[in-house]
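G., the chain you wanted modeled:
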Amino acid sequence: MQPPAGSQVSRVPAQRAPSEQLPPAQAAPAPEPPRRRLRTVLIVVGGVLALLGMGAVITGFVWYNRAATPDRSSPDVVVDNYLRAFLVDRNDIRADQFTCKDGEQLDPLRSLRTDLLAREDRFGVTFTLSWGQLAEEKKGDVAVVRVTLVISALVDGIKQSDRQPWQFETRLGEDWRVCSSSPTG
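Predicted structure as tokens:
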């Protein structure tokens, strides 16, 4: 049948391709790859932990360095630390951190300690050493520190003590160091 005149309908019959000639049906769109949110979070958290860890290590190093570095800030402090290391703790390595390179002028104090150790062995007593206030006289890069050493022991149940005045010469280089010792009384 003919379409009515003036009609807009095509005169060509509709044609359809057989199903085997059709292009293959598109597969469902590939799912989007999972966002790497977990990976990103783990990287950020790992980075923050690494920075915190490095900060803790650096802080620990600084604190350790401050604690391990001997205090040689002033003549009286260096003499006090030297006496504690040399006479009380009897630690020559630690005591050497407070002395000048030429330690020969410290022989009088070494002789005192040697004598006390020999008496401890000979009489079976233990000597304790203490000291009072340190008096410092500073002249430029040299300071003399005076102190009274108190040597005590318990002998046959009786506490005995001896007071000995000493002086120590200290010098300022990079920091204060004990350079000589001598009894003054």
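The longest strand covers residues 158-172.

Shout if anything looks off.
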